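HUMAN: Spend a minute on the protein record below and explain its fold to me.
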Amino acid sequence: MKKNTYKIDFLKDKNILVTGASKGIGKSLAINLSSYGANTILLARDEESLDSLYDEIKEKFNTSPMIIKCDLSLLEESSAQEIANLITQNYEVLDALINNAAVISKMSSITDYDLKNWEEVFNINLKSSFLLSKYLVPLLKHSKLPRLIFTSSRVAVKGKAFWGAYSASKAGVKALSEILNEELGFIPNFKVFNFDPKATRTDMRALAYPAEDPSTLKEPEKLIEYYLWMLSEQSSCSSKVYIEFDEQM
């Protein structure tokens, strides 16, 4: 990607929800978006990690973050509505939803995959993305520059042996983003993106590739330019829905 220069207050007063905010790409996003002035809404199930991240953001940046403790494997319509209600109680508008949370659970052949793990992966990766999009898109519509962003993977484009529920659920997320893009295309400046960060140093990557040397992988911080572009006015003119790391924009 061509490097852009964004002002330090580029995202000032923007309210952005990041799922899976307690670690990995989600944590990096929460910190980096806050550094540009965004009020980050931190959603994850690890309350201790969320509290620590909240304190770090409050100490470093002059923003108004918020914590939402939620186990996305258990998310239902009622709890998705509660999340929407909490946001409206604390902020005037929601500017972006970044559906980033995901799990692999296990690497296994389909014939050896047990239903409980399959359902957990689909609940976190796909069902929660559907429910949060359903209940938060109405809030996004009030933003001047609404953004709905999904974190993807190359196994969403082409299924891969032993990636089981992760690959299938990410393919579903890709389809979901394409559907939403068509359904919301009539709203001025509303953009839907599906972003594949490719190989990045995270705990989930280590689980999938235990023999891989993590020092050969890029840190999550290397992704921020892509997210800033997706959140910017520049991306309003783009017709792309699926974006990959290293792609020229």
Observations:
- The longest strand covers residues 39-44.
